């Protein structure tokens, strides 16, 4: 998503009233969740809301003790989704979603560290409220104001807004812009989910769905962060062993991917 498309979001956060009605979400998918100790796995989850909206999401669940986060730079030429699988396999990634925001010329918005190389500078613009990174010891998701650079960080994306914090949906998120969404969520122990929605919904709706027990995760979501969305929303899970990849194609090229690889 180009930076210019962030401007309506900034305006909506300021102007949206806190009294807007929020949806209650219930799962339509009734298959059991993978066991917490299971290896990396894919899940397609369907929810329905009390306001009549349907949410279908591709999810990849993984344990940070066994898997690392990676950021794969696709270059300023903005590689199309058709090139994702080849790039993903070459980098040893098992799954990926589109990553952070970028400018019209393809330059990343906010700090990005891909494969240990810093590609841009740290930003303090309001939408980039979170920092997602891997330092070799684990995966971290922090508020921008709390982040401190340190040696060993080889994968980092600055993005936002924060969707869930301390188990609660963040207040003040937009209730107006309906778009496909990409996100990362965690129980802040060792369990993580990378997700992308097939259907459009607002940021406030996504936050409420993530904070609803059992809706988009088998464990309570302690914190979650929005990644680039809209026409940039894409998802790829490679099950290997000759099986066809599971894919949600982005509608336009993107600058980088956030992915998962084995430790």
What does this protein structure show overall?
Keywords: Glycosidase, Hydrolase. The protein is mainly β and 263 residues long. It has one domain (3-9, 42-240, 247-262). The chain contains 3 helices and 18 strands. The protein has helices spanning 7-15, 84-90, 203-211, and strands at residues 25-27, 41-49, 54-63, 67-73, 95-98, 112-114, 117-118, 130-134, 139-143, 155-159, 162-165, 168-169, 182-186, 191-197, 223-226, 235-237, 246-248, 256-262. The strands form 3 sheets. The protein has an 8-stranded antiparallel beta sheet with strand order 1-2-3-14-13-15-11-12. A 5-stranded antiparallel beta sheet has the order 4-18-5-16-17, covered by helices on one side. It has a 5-stranded antiparallel beta sheet with strand order 7-6-10-8-9, with no helix packed on it. The two termini are 30 Å apart. The model is unreliable at 7-20 (pLDDT under 50).
H/E element sequence = HEEEEHEEEEEEEEEEHEEEE
DSSP summary, beta strand count: 18
- Main sheet strand line-up: 1-2-3-14-13-15-11-12
Major sheet characteristics: 8 strands, antiparallel
Percentage of residues in helical conformation: under 10%
- Percent strand: 25-35%
Query: Helix tally?
Result: 3
What structural category do the secondary elements indicate? mainly beta
Number of domains: 1
Mean pLDDT: 90
Distance between the termini: 30 Å
Uncertain stretches: 7-20
């Amino acid at each position: 998503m180009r930076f210019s498309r962030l401007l309506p979001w900034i305006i909506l956060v300021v102007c949206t009233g806190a009294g807007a009605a929020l949806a209650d979400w219930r799962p339509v998918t009734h298959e059991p969740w993978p066991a917490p100790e299971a290896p990396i796995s894919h899940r397609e989850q369907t929810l329905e809301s009390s306001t009549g909206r349907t949410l279908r999401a591709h999810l990849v669940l993984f344990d940070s003790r066994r898997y690392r986060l990676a950021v794969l730079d696709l270059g300023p030429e903005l590689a199309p989704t058709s090139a994702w699988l080849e790039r993903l396999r070459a980098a040893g990634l098992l799954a990926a979603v589109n990553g952070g925001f970028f400018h019209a010329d393809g330059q990343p918005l906010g700090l990005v560290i891909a494969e240990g190389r810093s590609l841009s500078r740290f930003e303090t613009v309001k939408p980039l409220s979170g920092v997602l990174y891997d330092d070799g010891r684990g995966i971290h998701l922090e508020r921008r104001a709390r982040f401190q650079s340190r040696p060993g960080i080889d994968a980092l994306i600055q993005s936002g807004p924060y969707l869930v914090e301390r188990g609660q949906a963040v207040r003040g998120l937009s209730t107006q812009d309906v778009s496909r969404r990409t996100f990362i969520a965690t129980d802040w122990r060792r369990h993580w989910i990378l997700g992308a929605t097939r259907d459009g919904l607002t940021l406030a709706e996504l936050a409420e769905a993530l904070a609803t027990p059992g809706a988009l995760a088998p464990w309570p979501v302690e914190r979650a962060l929005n990644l680039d969305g809209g026409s940039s929303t894409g998802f790829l899970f490679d099950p290997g062993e000759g099986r066809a990849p599971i894919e949600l194609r982005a509608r336009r090229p993107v600058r980088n991917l956030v992915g998962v690889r084995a430790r």
